Every structure is written in C-alpha cells, then in structure tokens.
Amino acid sequence: METTMDCCEGLRSSVIPRRGVLLGGASFAAWAYLPKFARAADGRDPRLVVVILRGALDGLATVAPIGDPDYAGLHGSIALSSSGPNAAVGLDDFFSLHPAMPEFARMYREKKAAVVHAVATSYRDRSHFDGQDVLESGFAGPGRVQSGWLNRALEGLPKGERVTSALAVGPTTPLVLRGAAPTVGWAPVALPQAAEDTAMRLVELYQHRDPALASALKQGLALDKAAQGDDMKPKPGTNGAGAMRLVARGAAKLMAADDGPRIGALAFDGWDTHANEGGPVGRLAQLLGGLDGALAEFETGLGARWRDTVIVVATEFGRTARINGTQGTDHGTGTIALLAGGAVKGGRVITDWPGLKPANLYQGRDLAPTTDLRAVMKGVLKDQFGLAEKVLAESVFPDSSAVKPMQGLVG
Amino acid sequence: MARDSQSALVALNRFGLGARGGASGDFLNAASDPRGFVKAELARPNGVLLEVPGLQSTAALGKAVFDYQFEIQQARDAAAKQAAPATEGQPPADAKAQRRNFSLNSIAMDMAPREPPKEAPVKPPENRNTAVAPTEAMRPNAPKPPPAPLNIIQKTFRAEALARLQRAVMVDCGFTERLVVFWSNHFCISANKGGPARMWAGSFEREAIRPYVLGRFGDMLKSVEQHPAMLFFLDNQQSLGPDSRAGKNRNRGLNENLAREILELHTLGVGGGYSQDDVTSLANIITGWTYAGRLGQLGAPGSFVFNANAHQPGAQRVMGKIYDASGVAQGEAVLADIARHPSTAKFIATKFARHFVADDPPPALVARLADVFTRTDGDLKALATAVVDSDEAWNAPLSKMRSPYEFLVASGRLLAQIPNDPGRYLGGLNTLGQPLWAPAGPNGFPDSNAAWAAPEGIKLRLDISAQIASRLADGVDPRDLLELVAADAASSETRKTIERAESRQQALALLLMSPEFQRR
Fold it and tell me: For residues B389, B390, B394 and B400, what is the CA-based torsion angle, rounded to 10 degrees?
C-alpha cells in the first residue's frame, strides 16, 4: 500500500493540478517482456485493451434481442425498437444495437467488432464489489486476491529483449492489472470530482439520516452547478461522455508509440442503472455514447496499430430482464461482452441464446448466462499473444481447465 | 465482554480521531470499555510530547530564520544598489528609509507563501525510458519547470506538519491529540503572519502547548504568552512602554494587541469583566516581553527575553488589583491571577464542552467543568477527565461535524495511510478552509456546525472523499471498513447505501461522507 495519503491535492485551482502524469508502477528496470512482440512469425505487433464497465451494464438494453418474443414485454418502456425515431441498428435478424453506438455499428459492419451475448463470469450473486473481484482477479470466486488475470497473463508471456509494461489508466491500477508484472499508470488532466451519481446517492442517505447535511449538500451541489454553468455539458473529470473520450484518446496515444505499452486496462463507472435507465435516449444512452466515442478514439489514436488491436469491453454482471418500478433494472446475471478492433473477426453476435421465456430466465429474473466470460478472455489472449492453454487454465484463470478458450475471435 | 457500539462511536469519534483500519481492533477495544479506552492516554503524560529527531527548538529555528532573512535582505539591498543610479561611494539617499520599511516581516511574507506550501510534487515515473510522455492533446499547458527547492521556512513547516500528522494518524485513540489541537487553537498563532510565525508554528505547539495539555492552565498560559511565536504573532516585540528608556528614545510606544487577546481570547473571555483600562495596564505590564534577535544582544537569538529597556516602569492596576513587582515577574503575577479568575473558568469550561459535546453545551456540564477547573486550580487533566466522566458526553447525540482536520486524519487512520509527505493533507486542509496553524484571526478556527456543515464545504468534502476513494479504494472492502467505523452502530441506511454502491470507489466515498463518519 502506498504510504502517502493521496487525498487532498488538486481540487479546483487551489492546488497544482495533476496533468498527464505517469505514476511509476512496480520497478521494472530489469523486466524484459514482450519482445517485439512475440509474433515475429506473422509480423504482427498485437495490442489488447480491457475496458471494465463498473456498475453492471444492461446487456439486454445495449444489444437488444428484438427477435426474442419476450424481450419487449420484459424491458417495457425502455425496450429498444427497430422502428421509430431512435431505432436500434440491426446487427442480424435477431439482435439490434443501441442507437447511441454508431461507431460500434460501423465497426461491426466492417467486421471489426463483435458481440458475445448471454455471457457472465462464474460469479452468481449480486454484489458489485464481489462481482468486480471475480471479473478482475480471474478466480472462480471472490477471494480478495491481490492480482489480476491480465497481469498474470503478462507474466506468462515469453520474455524478450524489449522492456515495456502494461498501461493502467486512472489514478490507481485496477485489480485486473495488478500483480507482479510491471505497469505504468496514466491519468488524464482533469481530476475526478465526485460523480453526480455519487452525490445523488449521498443526498438520499442524508435525507433519511441527516436532514441538515442533506440540505447543505443540495445547496452545495446547486452552487456548484451554477458555477459550472449548463450541467448537461460534459465536465472534464467527471464520468461523462467527454471524459470517456478523453481517457481513451490519451491511452491510445500512449499505446500507439513504438515503445508504448501493448496491454492496457481502464474502467468507466456509472452503469448501475436502477432508476430512470432510459431507452434509446436517456441516461444509459449517454453512457453508451461515451463508450462508443472511446472506442472511436482508440481506433483513431492507435492509427496503424489498430489493425492488430483487440479491445474487450466487459462488466461484472448484467441486470434483471424485467424493468423495475422505477424504469430501471436491478442487479442481474447474464450480459454482453463487446469486442472491437482491427484484429477482431467481427460482424457477428456470438451466443448460445437461452431465450427470455420465464422458465429460461436465471432465477426467474435474469438473462441466463450460457458463455463463461473467461472463455472469451482466454480466446483473445491465446490468439493475440499465443499464450498456452495450460498457462491460461492454471495461472491466468486458475482452476479453469473446464473453460475452453473461445476459438476464432481474432482473425 | 460487554459491547456497546454506540459508546464506541462516542469514544472513537467524539473524543478521539476515529478508528484505525487494519488489525488495530480499535472499535472492539472502544466498545468493550469506552471510557477506559479514552482515558488510557491520559495516564501517559509524556505521550503528549512530540519529540521527533530533526525537529529543533524555537531558539534554533529562530536563529535559522533570522540568518536566512538577513541573507535575503542583503541580497535585495545589493540588487537595489545596483539598480539605482548610485552616486559614487554613497548609498542612495533613501536607502535607509527603504530598509526601515523593509521590515523582517514583509521580507518573510515574500519568501514564505501566504498559504502553506501545497502539492507534493507528483511521483515521477520510475523508469524514464518507458515513461511515455503524454502528448500535447493531453497536456494543454507547457510542462512546468521543476519547482524551486523549498527554503528553510517551508522545509521546517512541512517537517513540523508531518510530525504532527504522523502522530495523529498513528496514535491509539487520539484523545490527547484532540486536546492538543483544542489548546493549540485556543492559543492560536497564524503561520501566515510571516516567516518567523511559519517557522515557529510547530515548535510553539510542541513547546508551549503539549507539555501542559495534562498540566496546569496557568503554566500553559505563561508558557504561551512568553513564547516568541505568540510575541511575534501579536506584535508584542514591537511594544514599548511609553516611559521606558526605549520608549522615550524612539518614536514608538505601546501595542495593546497581545494584552487584549490575553484577556479577551485566552482567559476571561468577552464580557469577562475587564475594561479598556485593564487592557492598557496589562499591555504596559508586558512591555519588554520579547525575543532576542539575530545579533543576540539580549540573549540567545530566538529565545524569550525580558527587555528592561522597553518595559514600562511602575505599578499597574489590573482587574482591581495593584501589581507593583518589577520586571517580568509583574506580568507573570497578572497571568497567574487571571488564570484563576472565575470568568476564565467559565470561559474555558464553555469552550471545552462546546468542543467535545455540543454547539450549545448542557449548562449543567459547563457548570461542573468550571467547578473542576476552579477546584483543581486549572488542572487540565482533571478537566479532560471530567468531560469524559460526564454522562452528557456519552448521551448527547453525535451532532457535531468533524472539523476538516479531524475528517482528513480520521480518513488517514481508517485507510492506514501514514503520511511520509504532508502535502496532500495540507492541500486538503486549505481546500476545506482549515489551513494548518493558520486561522484567519487570533480567535482561531470556529468550532461549530454552522462553520463546517456549510453547503460549499460539504460539496468540497464530497469531492475530496471521491478523490481519496479514487486513489485508495482498490484493495479495501468498504463493507469491512464500515464495520471498523461503526459496526452495528451503523444505520441500516448507511449500510445499504454502501452495499449498493456501484464500485469500491463510490462505496468508499459514500462511507467517508456518511453521518457515521462525518459526525462526532
């Protein structure tokens, strides 16, 4: 644990802002991984970016099974439709993509993006923290392990002449990238102010427990908005669409460099859509627009490297199939993973579709998972970096030999 | 083992600096014997002292700051001489006047920033070869030149701040540290007064406050009023008795600043029964209370000295009593008397109860504390014990806001972040309006909810909490931390809010902002 309490710098103008800072990770002076990148045979120089969506993405709202007769009823007022002013974009004759993601739709058409549906980690409960632990640690259950599967994948790579390390975007290294292998960190200029969602949750807590603080906080937030002007505009440092693009642009530039990191991980918060999730427009739509913009930034920023890149977008679990009483969805199980990048064998929705009939739902509530997310990750790692199945089954995703790498994701 | 979680909250938060994280067991210890947990620190009188290698005495620091300022002054004089179209061999006519205006004070203000130095410079990448430079798009401004090396004043301030913060984060309960902060704020100086004040802010607290926190009020009073930091802060080193030798020779006279604050803020309190004549008399009495300067004509540079040349001769009447002793003893006698005055007992008791119990403290408690103060001749350990023994302190709802200092230290304790650099704490304290050792006036930082629960302050606390969380939430489980903070005294609403947060970061920010963490 770092010994400096990194709490208080950089707020407003009162303190020197952190700008484009590279925070040293573990010492990696003698680390010689990722030779020219292990793919001399075909001349490729592969890159992998893992994007974690914290809060549990509603996969059914993002890639909607419009062809499933039960979908529209379950998702009710927020269900996507293939017609109307904000029509979802058909991916095939069954699935349609949320209209806030035109870039992903284009990549899909160009066969540089794919969807894996009805996917989940091995975690079956409904706690964000434990779910994120499982997603990032790569272990079968929440075990408070202090290393992540992406870091252990780095360790499993053949050592070579090139000194480099993985890129952790954000003020701390996400668990998925923590461990023995070296990382560098980078965070964009703007510091995170408390996200609006956090503030709203706090207002609600105060309203129940501490009315004086509720009133003070509400006034403080209002003052803040007045000072910042139009609160619909994306603010730097918050988790809005603009911030997602900014983060992706910076990460892409770093990873595009000849001696840049080949592997990166970043996380976007804000996907816990319990209330007012919105359909083709609204809160989730804004977030998806931000994610879409981030993917486009990677495409642009990686330039010639995009050809050899795979981006995997994953989340800790999904959301209930049926909307709740507040036009949102609660914690569920099956969801989607998205793949994008020049190296992706795309233009496909890969799924063993379980169906949305009441009897087919997991615990009568959730899209039943039919694909283990580890199979997707393993498939990507195997195809991109040539990691052996044994390494994947034993050290990267311990005790997972029963989960076979998904074939042919990269082409 | 009896377990009283509500009382544990009182022990940890109302009296202490919050539960430490890790395996400290603070909450369980506090729950099994709440009063014992708080009072344990009172049994270790030397535990209040802060003796850290490298921290120097006020005199040594005084000499260092005088020498430093002298060098600066010389350099400026030389620069001014060069710039001015000087007549050969003669200093410019106004050089002397210029120098007179050039008080030590103003030089120090130029040298030492008004605000505490902020910013820990950001940790550089460990391997510059791989440290891929962020591109222009990410870095709209040109890279800043490396920060100038810290001067002796800034270095000293940071070292003193670090020592205090480390103690606060590591100490068992924190009750005695809370007492230190209380008394340090009662007898505050401001580091923003100038170089010597910034240099001495830490040593003032170490020398004039800490040794007496469990001792006698009268001893603390004398020590404080004779400390160079206080004499500088309230200008007493400039005050000359009108009829003293120095006063007659020079075009200067009495400065009542320190005398007024002694009566108004340090002892009797506003309405404590003193008049303007008492202020003037006391000001006369303490003329000559000063510290030795760089050349050490009166004593070791930076040490308290009595300058008989500046002292107003003769007897003076204060609060109806004649003081005719000569020299420094005259003032010491006044301080000893007003330390025992009933107004002082009432003023201190009220402030003490307000700090530890409620903005509007129960009158019965105030009366009892005043009585203890009087009966024990200002025994501050007895006073502290009395408030811990009072039922009011354990029964009153936890309605006070933690001050920014208490909040940041409690966060550091919970997250087991022992600082090795004070920068982030100092920055946070600035942001939240409680810059370390630098209140806006001699009345110190406010001690009320109105001050600390203001809208902008709460919003800033939320931003700071989010920032702490964004850096430190990885690898901790906020649900476990809630157990350490409040265990079963946590409200179900707070528990649910934390459990339902969408990420560790969010959960930790919400925990740090929860009433259980913000109120004491």
Answer: -110
The percentage of chain B sitting over the pLDDT mark of 90, rounded to a whole number, equals: 77
Angle at CA of residue B152, ends B150 and B155, nearest 5°: 60
Chain B interface disruption, residue of A3, A5, A175, most B CBs within 10 A: A5
- B503 with A132: Cβ contact below 8 A: yes
Rounded Cα gap, residues A110 and A91, in angstroms: 12
Cβ-Cβ pairs closer than 8 A, A with B, add up to 271
Closest-CA distance of chain B to residue A164, Å: 6
Closest CA to A37 of A27, A29, A47: A47
Write out pLDDT tens, residues A307-339.
Answer: 999 999 999 999 999 999 889 999 999 999 999
Specify whether the CB–CB gap between A45 and A308 falls below 8 A: yes
* Two structure tokens written together for A285: 């739509």
Q: How far apart are CA B406 and CA B177, in angstroms?
A: 10
Distance CA B155, CA B160 (A): 9
Q: DSSP code of A337?
A: E
Q: Do A7 and B471 touch (CB under 8 A)?
A: yes
Distance from CA of A128 to the nearest CA of B (A): 6
Please answer yes or no on whether A253 and B134 come within 8 Å at the CB atom. Answer: yes
A198 vs B419, B426, B510: nearest CB:
B510
- The beta-carbon neighbor of A220 closest among B140, B456, B479 is B456
Which DSSP string corresponds to B332-353? Answer: HHHHHHHHT-HHHHHHHHHHHH
> What is chain B's mean pLDDT, rounded?
88
- The Cα A155–Cα A363 span in angstroms is 38
Q: What is the pTM of this model?
A: 0.79
**β-bridge mates for residue A331, sequence order:** A319
User: How close A245 gets to chain B, by Cα (Å)?
Assistant: 12
Distance CA A161, CA B306 (A): 73
Residues B10-58: pLDDT tens digits?
999 999 999 999 888 999 999 999 999 999 999 987 899 999 999 999 9
Amino acid residing at A57: L
pLDDT at A228 over 90: no
Q: Are strands A113-120 and A166-169 parallel, antiparallel or unpaired?
A: unpaired
CA B330 to chain centre: 29
Q: pLDDT, tens digit, for every residue of B376-433?
A: 999 999 999 999 999 999 999 999 999 999 999 999 999 999 999 999 999 999 989 8
For chain B, give the longest Cα–Cα distance: 88
SS3 string, B482-506, reads: HHHHCHHHCCHHHHHHHHCCCCHHH
Say what the pLDDT of residue A187 is: 74
Surface of A (224-283) touching B: CB under 8 A: 224, 249-250, 253-254, 257, 259-261, 267, 269-272
- Other beta carbons within 10 Å of B276: 9
Give residues with Cβ within 8 angstroms of B427, minimum separation 6: A8, A9, A10, A11, A14, A15, B118, B119
User: Is B414 within 8 Å of B482 (Cβ atoms)?
Assistant: no
User: Closest by alpha carbon to A369, among A59, A50, A49, A144?
Assistant: A59
Q: Residue B198 in contact with residue B112, Cβ under 8 Å?
A: yes
Question: Best of B169, B414, B415, B471 to disrupt the A interface by mutation (most A CBs within 10 Å)?
Answer: B471
- Model-level ipTM above the cut of 0.85: no
